[in-house]
Every structure is written in structure tokens, then in C-alpha cells.
Amino acid sequence: METVKEQEPTSLHQRILADISERILSGEWAPGHRIPFEHELTEEYGCSRMTVNKALSELAKAGLIERRRRSGSFVRRPQSQAAVLEIHDIKAEVQALGLPYRYELLSRHKRKSTAVDRDLLELSEPGPVLALRSRHFAGQRPFCLEERLISLVAVPEAASEPFDIDAPGPWLIGHVPWSAAEHRIRATAAEHEVAEALGIEPGTPCLVVERRTWSAEHPVTHVRFTYPADSHSLVARFTPSQGR
Hints:
Elements: H1 12-25, E1 34-35, H2 38-45, H3 49-61, E2 65-68, E3 72-75, E4 80-83, H4 90-96, E5 101-112, H5 115-121, E6 128-138, E7 141-151, H6 168-175, E8 180-189, H7 192-198, E9 205-215, E10 218-228, E11 232-235
Parallel strand pairs: 4-11
Antiparallel strand pairs: 1-3, 2-3, 5-6, 6-7, 7-10, 8-9, 9-10
């Protein structure tokens, strides 16, 4: 998605462009918000309809709004793209969309691993784990739900980290050199608890990315990211096989 170029609003056209862009990028106008109709903007700014139309066309071209025939213009829901094989920083991903980022810790539990925990982490024997549940926001809307297990055998120092301000992903990358990672990607319908956390209706299609990482063959973490399907896509680039 392109970003509208910042410029000094020396004309009505530029002023309209700057005002609407600011309201969208600041989160004041959330995705789905209806932009005032052309005749309303014409009255507000005391300009011609052609001037308003030009500004809205540029906003649509930049990917900030979508124009629907007979319905008006609406703030477009930004769609992020993540490389399938990368371990990406969600904060950087959100900021690349031109939206303010916020992280929120929902729950933190230190416990002895359950059978489910050991299966997710591929642990060979019981041990202490840290279970974290958090949300990442893009503007005022939840961007994704993060559910993470950390093996405290592999990363004992994580036990004393509150993770109430900074997300665990960047912290782990900075503290534990990972040697291998595995991604699993699937589609699902949001169950009630997930839907409530993401601010969507139960049954809404979602994209789930699960990842396991190891350090020197020791399981480090298992994380599940759940995204509303209309706001996230995965990208992979390939080169031709040498044998072909």
C-alpha cells in the first residue's frame, strides 16, 4: 500500500488530502468508516466538487480509502503481507502500513508443562513453561492475537520478564539465537474467545500462523498468531529449481 506524500497544504486540494490522511493514519477514522460524501466535503471546504473528487481519487490510489459506486468512500482495511519463511516483527509490520502500533498483554502464567504444552513445544519430558496471551493493535483495531509458550528450561531468564510493555517475540530474538524454525499455516473460523479478542464476529474467517523455534536442537517457543483473514496475507518468492 502506498502512502500519501506529506506536503504543505498550500491549496484546498492539498488541505483536504492532508486532513483526511491524518484522520485515517492516526486511527481517528477506523477501517470501514464512511468518508463524508463529496457534496458534504464541498460545503465543508467551500470548494468545487472537482477539487474534492481529485483528493478522494488520490487517497484511493494510495490505498487509504475505497470508493464504492452509489455508496460513497470508506476507509480501507489495510492488508499486511508477511514472508512465509521470515520471523518478522509485528510492530514493524504495522508501522509499515502507516498505522500506530500498540501491544497489550492479556495473560501471563508460569506453570508445569501440560501434555498439550509438551506436544506443542515437542518437549521430551515435563518442565516449566511460560504461557503468554497478548494482542497487537494497528490503530484502534486488533491486528492479531498472539498465544505463546516459552520453555523455561531453554530460556530460564524469561521467567522474570513481565512482558507487559514489550512483546515476547523481539525479546526472544534478542536473547536466544535460534537455529531452526518451523511454520504451519492454516485457515480457521474464529471461535468465541478468539473473536472477542480480535473484535470480530464468531465464525469470521481467520488466518493462523503457528511457529516453533529451536536453539541447538532445544525447543524454545511455540507461538500461534491469529489474524482476521481480510487484513493479512502471506508471500513467498521462489526461484526455478536447478534440476529443471
